[in-house]
Design a protein that fits this description.
The mean pLDDT is 96. α4 (191-199) links the parallel β11 and β12. The chain has helices spanning 56-59, 139-151, 168-179, 191-199, 213-220, 232-240, 254-257, 271-274, 288-304, 321-330, and strands at 4-5, 8-11, 25-28, 32-33, 44-52, 80-90, 100-106, 110-113, 120-121, 159-162, 183-188, 204-207, 223-228, 242-250, 278-281, 312-316, 336-340. With 344 residues, it is of the alpha/beta class. It folds into 2 domains: 4-135 and 312-340, Medium-chain alcohol dehydrogenases, catalytic domain (Quinone Oxidoreductase, Chain A, domain 1, Alpha-Beta Complex); 139-285, Rossmann fold, CATH 3.40.50. Strands 5, 6, 7, 8, 9, 16 and 17 form a 7-stranded mixed beta sheet that branches. α2 (139-151) packs parallel to α3 (168-179) and α2 packs across α9 (288-304). The two termini are 19 Å apart. It is built from 10 helices and 17 strands. The structure holds NADP nicotinamide-adenine-dinucleotide phosphate. NADP nicotinamide-adenine-dinucleotide phosphate is lined by residues 54-56, 140, 143, 164, 166-170, 188-190, 193, 229-230, 251-252, 254-255, 282-284, 328, 331, 333, 336-337. NADP nicotinamide-adenine-dinucleotide phosphate (NAP) is lined by residues 54-56, 140, 143, 164, 166-170, 188-190, 193, 229-230, 251-252, 254-255, 282-284, 328, 331, 333, 336-337. This is Enoyl reductase (ER) domain-containing protein. Keywords: Oxidoreductase. Residues 25-339 form the Enoyl reductase (ER) domain. Pfam families: ADH_N_2, ADH_zinc_N.
């Protein structure tokens, strides 16, 4: 078989504010790969089926000397994120051709993985679409599940306020909170998203761009559990409307991620003392060992049975990655943003 195209999406330049497709990132189709003869050196050859567009990709676009929980992207190298792929060839005893794997992968159509430590085999006994494994059954769903189980201490009838509630993290949290018999207030950035959030059980759902967050929380709160994906002014409003002994689960601060202006200064942190709040920031991977087995036992089954619902926003082809990331960072996605790279 003759060599074929191996398209990839590269990280080129540090963005100021939002990434600029074609400038800070760009699609490159100049490379080819000989699938039958390429050297594996003990590794596996993977055909990428799905590439996930997550907010954290923007967080990795930073000066290499700024340390966080995840390394900075390298200029000139492919972007990387979670993905699902199919093993085409293997020189590794754990994986065989035809297996499906999930994990952090480079943004390329075909990958030679020599280090397979972070790749997980997916059995998919429920025959779900592979894309679900980067959404509700992948890292975003795990974030919701692990964070809710570990930090919510939810009690029947308590009020949970969930932000970015139509996305894969937020919509899973809404449904877990309902399973725990909470009253759920949920906010999202369009009427379409609000309708979805209502359809999955939120008791109060509103468009924070056209509605009044403070008034809604005053009327429907106080808030016992705040799921924060947003930060900034919304966090300040949640603090003002929190219940005594409230729990704040700090999952993300997307309103601050691409900000080129001064970050929003929270002015009422004294509420933490006055209301005796517990505020916990967390990173999904830190809780993986504790919860992953029960997550995979429970969530794919509940998704397959239709008990947990999800919304997916698909694009086709790795050339769409740059714009797809901008869409997620500006709320133009309608559900979990996935890039379908190839058929199974
Ligand atoms: N701690 C962890 O381990 C972990 C893991 C995964 C994700 N996260 C965080 O969880 C959050 C949700 O992730 P996701 O994958 O589910 O993303 P997502 O909901 O698919 O996409 C991000 C959403 O954030 C909202 N948004 C964007 N800019 C905003 C702004 N300025 N103010 C308010 N909302 C804004 C938009 O929804 P609207 O249209 O509704 O505004 C956008 O659709 C993110 O903050 C992410 O960084 C954390």
């Amino acid at each position: 078989m003759a060599p074929i195209r191996n398209g990839r999406h590269l990280y080129l330049e540090l963005p100021i504010g939002l990434p600029v497709p074609g400038k800070t990132t760009a699609y490159d189709n100049s490379r080819t790969i000989d699938l039958e003869n390429v050297t594996l050196d003990g590794g596996i050859l993977i055909k990428t089926l799905v590439f996930s567009i997550d907010p954290f990709i923007r967080g990795r676009m930073r000066a290499p000397n700024v340390n966080t929980h995840i390394p900075a992207l390298q200029f000139g190298e492919p972007l990387s994120s979670y993905g699902v792929g199919k093993v085409l060839r293997s020189e590794n005893s754990i994986f065989k051709p035809g297996d499906h794997v999930y994990g952090m992968i480079p943004c390329e159509e075909y990958i030679i993985a020599r280090d397979t430590v972070r790749l997980t085999m997916i059995e998919n006994k429920e025959s779900l679409p592979w894309s679900v494994y980067v959404g509700v059954c992948g890292m975003p769903g795990q974030t919701a599940y692990y964070g809710w189980k570990e930090f919510s201490a939810a009690k029947e009838g308590e009020v949970a306020y969930v932000t970015a509630a139509a996305g894969p993290v937020g919509s899973t949290v809404v449904q877990l909170a309902k399973s725990d018999s909470c009253k759920v207030i949920a906010s999202a950035g369009s009427d379409e998203k609000v309708a979805f959030v209502r359809s999955i059980g939120a008791d109060v759902a509103f468009n924070y761009k056209t509605g009044d967050t403070n008034k809604t929380l005053e009327e429907e709160g106080p808030v016992n559990i705040y799921w924060d994906s947003v930060g900034g002014e919304t966090l300040e409003t949640a603090l003002a409307n929190s219940a005594v002994f409230g729990r704040f689960i700090e999952c993300g601060m997307i309103s601050q991620v691409s900000s080129v202006n001064t970050l929003y200064p929270i002015k009422n942190l004294w509420q933490v003392i006055a209301k005796q709040l517990k505020i916990t920031g967390f990173i999904c991977s830190s809780l993986h060992t504790k919860y992953s087995a029960e997550f995979y036992r429970e969530i794919p089954r509940r998704v397959a049975e239709g008990e947990i619902k999800y919304l997916e926003d698909r694009e086709y082809g790795l050339d769409k990655v740059g714009q797809a990331l901008v869409d997620v960072l500006t709320g133009k996605n309608n559900g979990k943003k996935v890039i379908i790279v190839a058929d199974d």
